[in-house]
Specification:
By secondary structure, this protein is α+β, with helices and mostly antiparallel strands. The protein is built from six helices and seven strands; from the N terminus they run ββαββαβααβαβα.
Length: 185
């Protein structure tokens, strides 16, 4: 499995203990199987290069948890983002990226504005991108760094334009879904 990670340095051997515990799938090393997606989310930092690392992951013998965009996925991510202890015993987690609408959706539900079933409809709006999270040292041992590519400022700006166009389309679809849901009540 080929995987990609955007950042500001070459990372040949990732540290799964570095980073936020309250990310989508808890603490670990986050990658995507979609090279184009990694490029779109690459950022810039003054005085540093923007790097996309490429890896190969051998899945043999690893415990893998796969999520789909459903209630189980939502509850797992919401728990991690709110500091709940991650009790899932997997070497690798594969599933959709949540984006920050998960917070907004939960706030709408807890306020009583939407029912949980309606909130799930909102979470289904827009494109679905997958992320792969390396959770254990065993999985790190099966992750082989292949190369790093430095992105130019021009490349990053081109990808940002694509991302902004996608975000505009997403906002339109989200508004349409909200109108549809509110019209049903």
């Amino acid at each position: 499995m080929l995987l990609y990670h955007a950042g500001f340095k070459t990372i040949e051997k990732p540290d799964i203990h570095y980073g936020r515990k309250n990310a989508d799938f808890g603490q670990g090393f986050y990658l995507t199987p979609e090279e184009e997606f990694a490029h779109r989310w690459a950022g810039e930092r003054k005085g540093e290069e923007t790097v996309v690392n490429t890896y190969e992951l051998a899945l043999d013998g690893l415990v893998i948890k796969q999520f789909d965009r459903d209630r189980e996925w939502f509850e797992y991510i919401y728990g991690n983002r709110n500091g709940k202890s991650d009790e899932l015993k997997s070497d690798v987690i594969i599933g959709p990226i949540a984006n920050d609408i998960i917070y907004n959706t939960n706030g709408i539900v807890t306020s009583g504005f939407l029912k949980p079933e309606e909130a799930m409809q909102i979470l289904m709006v827009g494109p679905e991108y997958r992320q792969i999270t390396i959770k254990t040292e065993k999985a790190v041992g099966q992750l082989k760094w292949l190369e790093s590519k430095v992105l130019s400022h021009e490349e990053i700006m081109g990808y940002k334009k694509t991302l902004m166009a996608e975000e505009t389309e997403y906002q339109k679809l989200l508004a349409e879904k909200l109108e549809e849901i509110m019209g049903e009540d």
